[in-house]
Amino acid sequence: xxxxxxxxxxxxxEQFDPAEAVRIAALADAAGFAGAVVSDRFQPWLPSQGxxxxxxxxxxxxxxxxxxxxxxSAVPGYRMHPAVVAxxxxxxxxxxxxxxxxxxxxxxxIDEHVVGGYWPEPxxxxxxxxxxxxxxxxxxxxxxxxxxVRHSGDHFRLESSRLWSRGSPEVQVWAGGPATAxxxxxxxxxxxxxxxxxxxxxxxxxxxxxxxxxHRGQGRGxxxxxxxxxxxxxxxxxxxxxxxxxDWPMAGxxxxxxxxxxxxxxxxxxxxxxxxxxxxxxxxxxDIGVHVDRIRSLLDLGFDSVHLHxxxxxxxQWIERxxxxxxxxxEEGL
Length: 334
Known about the structure:
Blueprint: E1 7-10, H1 18-31, E2 35-39, H2 55-65, E3 69-74, H3 82-95, E4 100-104, H4 109-112, H5 122-145, E5 149-152, E6 157-161, E7 170-174, H6 178-186, E8 190-194, H7 198-216, E9 225-231, H8 237-247, H9 263-270, H10 275-279, H11 288-301, E10 305-310, H12 315-332
C-alpha cells in the first residue's frame, strides 16, 4: 500500500486504551496514512470516553509498530516543565530519526489544573507557550552542538543544562488566532489549526506566511502548516450522527472549553448538543466523497498536511474505507 504524503490519522487517546490505540495506529499505517497523531491528556473530555493514557509511552509503542511519522501534541509548562517535554521529544526523535514531530499547545484546564497551579488567562497562556517553545528549541539546537543552555524568563527557569538524547524534531505550535500564527511564523515554527470556516483558515494562513516571510528574510525556511479536521463517518448517515453525539459531542459546543476542569462538567454541557449543532461544525456523512471534498478543500487553501480524526469508535471500518477510497481519491487530486 502506497503511503499518503499529507493525511495523518488521529488516534484519540481519550477513546481507546493504550494497546488498542497502538493497534489502531498500526492499522492506519498499513492503510497508507502518512503518520499517527496523539495528544497529551490527563483526563478524557467525557467520563464515558474512559481513557487518558500517558502520551509519550503510547507514542513510543506506536513508533515501534508503524513506519510513518509520529506527531505528539504536548503542553509544556504546567504538568511538565519545558525541559521535560524537550527530553521526552528528543528521546522519541532519537529512537525514530526523521519520523517525530512535536506540536506544542497552550493546553486546557481539564488536563493542566490537576497539579494545583494557577490557571492563567488566554493571553498569559500564549506567552507561556512561546517562552516554553523557545526553551525547547534551544535545548534541541544546543544538544546538536554539545553545549549547555540557561534560561531565566517571565515564566520559566532553566539552570545550565543540556539534552543528552540528541534527536531534534520539527516543531509546530497550535494557533488559535492570527497573532499566534504570525508569531509562530516569525520564530520559524510551523502551525496547526482547527478546521473551521474557509475565511478564518485563510486569515490564519496569511498571518503565518507573513511571519514566515520575516523569518525567511533571515535566511531561514518556514515550518509546516497543518489543519486538524474532525469528521464523522459510518455506514449510514444516522449511525454517523449517533457516533458524533455519543462519542464526540464537544464538536458541537459553540464556546471555548479551555477553562473547564472536569469531564463531568463537559458531559453536562455536551448533553445540550443536538444534531444541528454537530452538522454546523463538522461533516457528518456515510458518503466518503463528502469527506474527500472536505480534505481537498483544506489542502487547496494551502495547508501542507491534514490531521484527520473520525470522531466515532468505528476506527477499523473507517481505516478500511480510507484505504479503499479516501486516501487514493485525495492523492489523485493533489
